[in-house]
Amino acid sequence: MEMLEVKDIYKSYGTVEILKGVSFTMKKDETKVIIGPSGTGKSTLLRCINLLSPPDKGQIWLNGEEATNPKSNINKIREKIGFVFQDFNLFNHLTALRNVSIGLEKVKGIEKEEAQQRSLEELRRVGLEAQAHQYPAQLSGGQKQRVGIARALAMDPDIILFDEPTSALDPELIGDVLDVMRGLCGKVAMLVVTHEMGFARNVADEIIFMEGGVIVEQGSPKEMFTNAKMARTKEFLGKIGVLYGEEGA
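and the corresponding structure tokens:
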């Protein structure tokens, strides 16, 4: 059984059609990377998958349960979907530790002490144990993003969605975040929207190229980078390779 199944998803905002029938599947612990030009619906797709913006049409299945069924318990399903945002979305008035533990307490009903213990373990996993009692204002962008990843991991999700996790970071901080993500490969399913071509090439099980609200092409990194079938895919990868450096981070 596929862990995630996205079936014929459509989404419009007002009269603007953003997604025009997107379908793909993911297996347990797989890493897929979505690439494509800005404004093509990549972030909207992630928001549809965790139902922050429910799709207008189509279905999403997580572990055999239809998330888009009106009778489904959205909050229960969302517990199984981690989300790492482009702009961190941390609570500025809470320490790094509290940012991670609050969801365990409020959503999963875990006792404060156990939640803090678990949160400390996740901060250790992303290399931030020493910053546990610092507030977001005291952290670099890369550290904030790693807190965001620890927060997602603490909930023990089936899949984590990453929405351009490095695009708000200074170049020298990107590597730390990508290293953490590399370390998660094969341990949790990851669906990553990114421009980091080196990461996509070295880490993805599959790359999905989207443009204009549809999937233009998908395949292994080797296929996509050396033998893309569609002229548009080749053109995009050629341009982005020049822009971001062929190997990337």
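(Above: one complete record from the training split.) Residues 4-244 form a domain with the Rossmann fold fold (CATH 3.40.50.300).
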